[in-house]
Amino acid sequence: MWRLLCILALVISSEARPKKYAGIPLQKPVSPRASTDNRLNKTLVKPSNYALDLKVTKDNLDKGEFSGAVTITLNVLKDTDSFVIHAKALNISTVTLTGNNYAGTVTAEDADANDFVTITGSKNITKGDNYILKIDYTGVLSDTDMDGFYRSSYKDADGNTKYLATTQFEQTGARRAFPCFDEPSFKATFDITITYPDTSTALSNTEPKKTRSDAENGLVTVAFKTTPKMSTYLIAFIVSEFECTDIKKADDGTPTSVCGRPGTKETLSNALKAGIEALNTMKTFTNIAYGALGNKKMTQAAIPDFATGAMENWGLATYRETDLIWDKDQSSNYYQEVVYTAVAHELAHQWFGDYVTIDSWSDLFLKEGFATYFEYHSAAQVHKDWQLEKQFVLEQVQTILVTDSRKDSEALSYNTSDLGEIESRYNDVSYSKGSAVLKMLQSFLGLKNFKKGLNKYLTDHAQNVATPDELWSSFEDFKPKDVPDKLTVVMDNWTKKAGYPLLSLTQNEANITVTQQRFLLSDDDSDYTKWYVPITYTTSADPSKFTETTTKQWLTPDTNVTIVLDKKDNWIILNNQQVGYYRVNYDKTLLAKIKDALNSDGQGKIDEISRSQLVDDQLNFARAGKAEYADVLKFLEFMKNDNSYYTWYSAFEGFSYLLKRTNDDKIRTPLKKYVKDLMESLLVSVPFTTENPKAQIYTLKQVLALTWACNLGEENCVNNATAAFTSYTTDDKIPSRNLKSIVYCTGLKNSKNSTNDYDFLYNKYLSTDLATEQVTILEALGCINNSTIRQEYLKVALTDKVRIHNVDFVFKSVYSNNEKEGVNDMLQFIQNNYQDFEKHFGTQSTLTSLISKVGDWITNQDQIDTLNEFLKTYGLDASIKEAVKTAVASATTNLKEISTLEGKLKDYFGPTSGASINTYHLVNLALIGVVYLFFNFF
Ligand SMILES: [Zn+2]
Fold first, then answer.
1. 259 falls in which pLDDT band (50, 70, 90)?
2. Which of 566, 753, 777, 937 suits 532 as a labelling partner, its CA being 20 to 30 A distant?
3. Cis ω for the linkage preceding 171 (within 30 of 0)
4. What is the CATH number of domain 1-240?
């Protein structure tokens, strides 16, 4: 599954109710479920095949319902009187059990809190193959939660609403479409048959085998070919009037196509190309062709309503429209990259997840780590100029290093049986740390050995399940001699412990000692975890070594490392290309040498990823109290001459934190001035008026730099953006596809006619059906410089004008773009409209999740008081109260963090810090003046 946002995270009760056992007592009673948790019992009953027969008529689509019959072939492994299967929100009408001379009847209890339906026999169900369990039932196609078998819609060319029925089963949605053994390790084959209106088509995991028409009733029935042995969460089906691109074949002959709403065919060609490329690259990488996995076709489909980003259903991957539909004239380069990387992610899952599956959701990283790794490293094989391997370092490694330095961070493998906890595994740790650790493994094994190990892993566990230890063992025969222990030992703490090491370097003449300790943002030294750490480094003697990622020395849990420098070495920098999952702290002497080099011509030939790593590490050391902000901000002054996208990306991440966690204008104003001054040469390198969309990194850098410049009120940027916005409102001159996000937001922030400008852009939103454009506008409308209009805009989120999966863009655009006022607006909106959330979304979870997000943006006591006032509201539901209390607690922590941070920043920016700094402050006040009153940051 591809992240983004899961707005409607389901609140699933984890309460396990006591079970009643009916029927004839057995000599040796066997629990129908596993004894220690709420998982199915693997030693009792296993399915081998499902024949699933679904019916969705036109009337069903209109009413949001469906009917089905499932026939499950079972293998009973032990004598029992009952067993359990999963079902949720299904109305079961009949249940029969036949085969293996079974002569009794069976009954089904209603589903319990674990979605367990207990099937109890009137006679003993004895050990044996080929039992046939048949269940008839009906179910609902939900409109609101985009989970299970659900209904999505769009408007056709004539403005009529068209409904479609589609699926999202990961992790536990299959049980809402058919009764089943809904855990990944219960693999079986599936024969799916769907009856649907003859104006529609039906898609599923495999190719159609047989189609039958019932003209009298306007229905068609299609039987799909038997699937490979697979998990329930990877089943998919869609009944729609979608159109598909022509079929193209991958290198191994696999036919692929992409489908979406009528009218989107042209804009799906990018995804078709990405799909072919991903299948071909994965074949080369793993030495196993897609077709050899067991499925003979690959379809990708863009779904108008989609809870996450995308889903890797075997042979029928589904996506949110922004992740698959790309318009070459209107969508930005960024979204083109999103399509390629999302497709690379989902198609990598066909090998890692679909073919070889995780044994339990506890090891989610085993599939999401791989998919995230390939998201970059597969697309990188074809689009070399996108430098995706370098982007991987910024977007995955550096991001997760921050999350994973919290005391409460979780390990990659985390024992999960509870349904609520399963949801919580879909976090950055599983995806980003999973991929970062795999990247480190790839680097110390070497790419060739890594590929050999992957092939062995896939071959040994073909169409089966695997555990992390089985993965590490697959590489054992291919590891280089220098790896200090068995891979299961080397990888153990990377997998089973939270956090990562901080490597500290101390120089004593030519000797440099490297020690390790867990890095935590909080001032806490109580975690003694140590890791096996592969070390790479480059010295000033040969800067060409920055591209070499072969391990030079191993740091082990028991021993420190000594690096002996050559006489001609001046500086040393660890962790080439940041392939190791750790931070590096240099002692004062070593850091001073690096600083000198960075300030010399061409940044002393220090590689841009190393520069980016230094920036990221230094800013986080200051945050953790391991360095002084005054020193770090001085260190960053080399960036006045550094125009690398990578260095700046890391710096902006750090500056975002500083601006989010400061409140006092006496700090914020000079801080913004500091950033703006630092950006001078960067902005010269990417002028507003010079676009080059063929150059990907230039374009990404331009958008990043100008977004910051305009937000900081940099005059040139603001003038250019507002002029472009005015050209749009007066002459309908559409802004360029890459800069439009900046033009929209800056135009609204600096608007002199707020109502007209807001209405203009809002109407553009209503008139487009291109998802990337809709989201770009939704993200900008909250920038409007008028609080009353912002309240009106927030109300739009609670109407059918905004798809449920997009409401977060509306909220975030208000609370993150307008400093304190945006947060105030959001708190006021919640107070005035909280009752409408459940009416509109059918659940409180959108509201509770919003309260928690806003809590993170709170910067002052007044805002906390507002939340406390809200808490006193009569009749507030318990879940909302709980969310508000949690938000108050996190906001109170923010205030402490703000106070500490502002105290530290005063050393550099405060009034007593020296003349030059005071000048910063005064000049800034004079320059920004009135513009600042309207200027709203983040
Ligand atoms: Zn995924």
1. very high
2. 566
3. yes
4. 2.60.40.1730
Provide the 3-class DSSP secondary structure of residue 148.
strand
Domains 1-240 and 357-496 share a fold: no
Looking at 732-818, list the stretches that DSSP marks H as alpha helix, in order from N- to C-terminal side: 740-749, 754-767, 771-781, 787-796, 807-815
Of 672, 700, 670, residue with least CA distance to 685: 700
Q: How do 248-249 and 298-303 pair as beta strands? A: unpaired
CA 10 to centroid of ligand 1, rounded, Å: 18
CATH (residue range 661-934): 1.25.50.20
Contacts of 10 (CB under 8 A, 6+ apart): 145, 147, 423, 845
Distance (Å) from CA 415 to ligand 1 centroid: 19
User: Ligand 1: distance of its center to the CA of 346 in Å?
Assistant: 6
pLDDT at 28: 39
CA distances (Å), origin 741, targets 390, 744, 748, 775: 24, 5, 11, 10
345 is in an annotated binding site: yes
> Is the CATH number 1.10.390.10 carried by domain 357-496?
yes
Q: For residue 17, how far is its CA from the centre of ligand 1 (angstroms)?
A: 32
* Structure letter (DSSP) for residue 78: S
**Predicted confidence (pLDDT) at residue 800 exceeds the cutoff of 90:** yes
Instruction: Provide the residue ranges of all domains of the chain, joining segments of one domain with +.
Output: 1-240, 242-351, 357-496, 501-639, 661-934
Report the C-alpha gap between 840 and 861 in whole angstroms. 31
DSSP H or E segment with residue 715: helix 715-731
Q: How many Å lie between the centroid of ligand 1 and the Cα of residue 762? A: 33
- Report how far apart, in Å, the C-alpha atoms of 884 and of each of 8, 392, 794, 863, 871 are: 18, 36, 19, 12, 7
What is the distance in A from the centroid of ligand 1 to the CA of 313?
10
Contact call for residues 87 and 67 (beta carbons, < 8 A): no
Question: Would the annotation count 383 as a binding residue?
Answer: no
What average pLDDT does range 889-905 have in this prediction? Answer: 96
Backbone Cα Rg of the chain: 29
pLDDT digits (tens, 9 = 90+) for 280-291: 999 999 999 999
The CATH number for 501-639, chosen from 1.10.8.60, 3.40.930.10, 2.60.40.1910, 2.40.340.10, is 2.60.40.1910
Average of pLDDT values for 821-843? Answer: 96
pLDDT digits (tens, 9 = 90+) for 128-148: 999 999 999 999 999 988 999
Please give the Cα distance from 676 to 63 (Å, whole number): 56
Classify domain 242-351 by CATH number.
Answer: 1.10.390.10
Alpha-carbon span 935 to 749, nearest angstrom: 7
Between CA 241 and CA 244 the distance in angstroms is 10
Annotation says 346 is catalytic: yes
Is 838 a known ligand-binding residue?
no
In this prediction, residue 907 has a pLDDT band, given cuts at 50, 70 and 90, of confident
